[in-house]
Amino acid sequence: MKEALDKIKAAEMKNEDLQNDLQKELQEYAEKKEAQLQLLKDGLKASRQQQLEAAEKISETALKSEKEELLAAAKQEKATFTALYKERHEKVATFIIERVQEIYGS
Fold it and tell me: What is the pLDDT of residues 33-87, one digit of tens each?
């Protein structure tokens, strides 16, 4: 009977050791998976950051191009306005001078 109790006790101790080993392995596995998950998160974060920077660069380039186009258009409009102003100013000045000469003589 004592022999049977010793065997049971030894089996219980072995089971307890196995359980402790399994818990340790499970803990190590969980830590390994957590580390892998963190690596994936870091990789995705870096990728997302690169995509964001690329999108910002594209937007910045598009805005710069649009700004240059708008400035060129504004410069052209100003030149056109200035030319029309000079032309009309000369016509109006000539017209006024002619009218004054007609009314008051030369």
Answer: 999 999 999 999 999 999 999 999 999 999 999 999 999 999 999 999 999 999 9
How many CA atoms lie within 13 Å of 4's alpha carbon, on the beta-carbon side? 1
**pTM (whole model) above 0.70:** no
Q: What is the residue-wise DSSP string for the chain?
A: -HHHHHHHHHHHHHHHHHHHHHHHHHHHHHHHHHHHHHHHHHHHHHHHHHHHHHHHHHHHHHHHHHHHHHHHHHHHHHHHHHHHHHHHHHHHHHHHHHHHHHHH--
